[in-house]
Amino acid sequence: MPRSKAFFIFALLICLVLLISTSFAGESATGKHRRPLIPGADTVSISGFVLDNHKEPVPEAHVSILVNGEEVDLLETAHNGKYVSRFQLEKGKIQSATIGIKVYKASFQGKTLTFKGNELASKDKHFYISEDIVLGRVLGPAFWISTVVFILAYILIAFELLHRTVAAMIGATLMMTISYTIGTINPAYHIFSFERAIAAIDMNVIFLLMGMMIIVGVLKHTGVFQWCAYFAYKLAKGKVFLLTIFLMVFTAITSAVLDNVTTMLLLTGVAIEICVSLNLNPLDMLIPLVMASNVGGTATLIGDPPNIMIGSYAGLTFTNFLLALGLVCALSLVALIIFCKIYWGKDYAAAKVDSIEEHIKTLKAEYKITDPALLTYGLAVLGFAVFLFLTHGYWHMEVSIAALMGAAILVTIAILTEKINLIQLIEKDIEWPTLMFFIFLFIIVGAVDETGLLALIADWIVHLSQGSFVISVTLIIWVAAIVSAFVDNIPFTATMLPIVAYLSEVIPGAGDQLWWALALGACFGGNGTIIGASANVVTMGIAESRGYHISFVGFMKKTFPYMIISVAIGQAWLLIFRPQ
C-alpha cells in the first residue's frame, strides 16, 4: 500500500475508533442483574449520585444493591456519577427487609449504606430511596502506579530519551494495560477504563488543531506567509528587535481575540520565513512569540481553554476577564519585551543586513503572492471561521466546529479548482505526531486525575490556605503555574474549580480574585516548558518539521525564568489592586 494512502487510512481509523468509543462512554448507568417484572409485586427504585469529597461525580463506580444480604442488582455509575436501580420484591416483604447500597471504586474508600424497608418513601406499590453517596480518596496501588508512570513518561520527554509522542504513547498504553491485566485480577490496581481514557481526550482541542492545520496548509500554497514576512520586515525598516516587538504585540492581541493555538498556527510560518531571510535561527523569534501568545490569551474569556472553563463555572463574562486581567497582561507583555531584549538582543543585532533597502527589494521580488484566487477564497473562509470563533458563545458551539467547517469548505474549493493534492495536504500539512502527542498526553493526565493526584494537590491548597486571602492567592497562582508547566492545564483547572469556589465563599473579601489567580497561574504557567501549553507544542512541532529542533530542557532554560517573572507580576497585581 502506498505510504500516503496508509497515512490517510490510519487517520480515518483513529477518528472512527474515537467516535465509537465515545458513544459507548456516554451510555447511562444500567443494572446488570435485571429481572423480569412480576405483576402485583412491590417495586423498589433506588437512585442518587456518587460523589468525591469535592462534590464532583465519580463515574464507573460499582454499585451493588443488597436485600437481606443478597445481591439483587449490580450497576455502574454514569459519567455524571448517577446510579439508578429498580427491582421487585414479593408483596408485603419490603417492610421487613434490610436494603443495602454497597459502592466501590479503585482509589476510593468503599462505603455501604443500609436502610430498613419501613423507612422507604412509598406510593401505592412503589417504594423509593434517593441517596447521594460521598466517597473519600485512598492512595492505593492505582494511585502510586499512575503517579510513577506519569513521572517516568515526563522524564523520557524532558531528557529526550524517546520522542515525546512515543514516550506519551508508552505511558498511556502502560496505564491501560496494567488496568486490564493486574487490575482485572485485583481491582485495587485498576487505574481507569478504556472508556474513561477516551473521555479524557479533549477532542475539541484535537479537532481545533486539525482544522486550523488544514486551513494554514492550504494558505501556505498561496505564498501569503512569505509576503507577510516581507511586509513585516519592511514595516520595521530592517530593525530585527523592533520587528520582534511588532510581532509579539500583534500575537498577544490576536491571541486574546481568537486563541493562542490558532494564532501560532497562523504566524509560525510567517516568523520562520522572516528568520530565514535574515539568517536568524527561527527559534529565537518563535519562542518569544509563543510566550506572547500565552500572555495575550490570558486576557480574555476565549483566549485560553482554562479561561473558558473558569468563566463557564463562575459565571464570568468576556468583559469581566478583560477588565480584571487586561492591564496585568499588558504589563507582563512589557516585561516580556524587556526579557527578550536582554536574552536575545545580541542575536537580533547580529541578524542585521548591510543594505536594508536592497534587502527589502530582494524580499519584495522573492516573496510574492503566487495564487491570488486561492488566497481570496482562503481569507474569506478564515474570516468566516474567525467570526464563528468570536460568536461561539452565542451559538453554544465548540470552537473546533468552526475550524473543521472552515477546513472542509476551503479543502473542497481547493480540490474542485485543482489547486492542491488532498493526500499531500493530509500527509504533509497536518502535524500528526503533534496531534498524537496531545491524545496520549490527555490520557496520561486523565489517569492521574482519575486516581486522585490532582485532587490531592487541591486538598493541600485548601489545608495550607487557613482562610487567609494572601496565602490563598499565593498558593493558587503559584501551584497552578508550576503544575500547568508540567501537566496539561485543562484537567488541573477542572479539578481546581470547586476548590476555588469554596475558598471564594469562606474567605472574607475574596470576591472573584481567586478566580483571577487560577486563570493567571494556569495560563502564565504554560510558558514554563515546551509541553506547558498547546501553543508551545504546536509551534515547536511545526519548527521541528522544518528542521529547527529544541529540547525540553533547552526550551525550559529560555522560558522558565520569564514564567517566574510573569507569575510574580500577576501575584503582585492581585494583592495590590485586588481586581473584582
Give your account of this protein's structure.
The chain has 580 residues and is an alpha+beta fold. Among the domains are: 42-135, Aromatic compound dioxygenase (Protocatechuate 3,4-Dioxygenase, subunit A, Sandwich), CATH 2.60.130; 203-438 and 524-577, no CATH class. 64% of the residues lie in helices and 10% in strands. The protein is built from 24 helices and nine strands. Strands 1, 4, 7, 8 and 9 form a five-stranded mixed beta sheet that branches. The chain has a four-stranded antiparallel beta sheet with strand order 3-2-5-6, with no helix packed on it. Helix 19 (453-465) packs antiparallel against helix 20 (469-486) and helix 20 packs antiparallel against helix 24. 46% of the residues are buried. Mean pLDDT is 86; it is low at 6-13 and 16-28.
Q: What is this structure's SSE topology?
A:
Blueprint: H1 3-25, E1 42-52, E2 62-67, E3 70-76, E4 82-89, E5 98-104, E6 111-116, E7 121-123, E8 126-130, E9 133-135, H2 141-158, H3 164-180, H4 182-185, H5 194-200, H6 203-220, H7 224-235, H8 240-257, H9 260-278, H10 283-297, H11 305-314, H12 318-350, H13 356-366, H14 372-390, H15 392-395, H16 399-416, H17 422-429, H18 432-451, H19 453-465, H20 469-486, H21 489-506, H22 513-524, H23 534-545, H24 552-577
Parallel strand pairs: 1-8, 1-9
Antiparallel strand pairs: 1-4, 2-3, 2-5, 5-6, 7-8
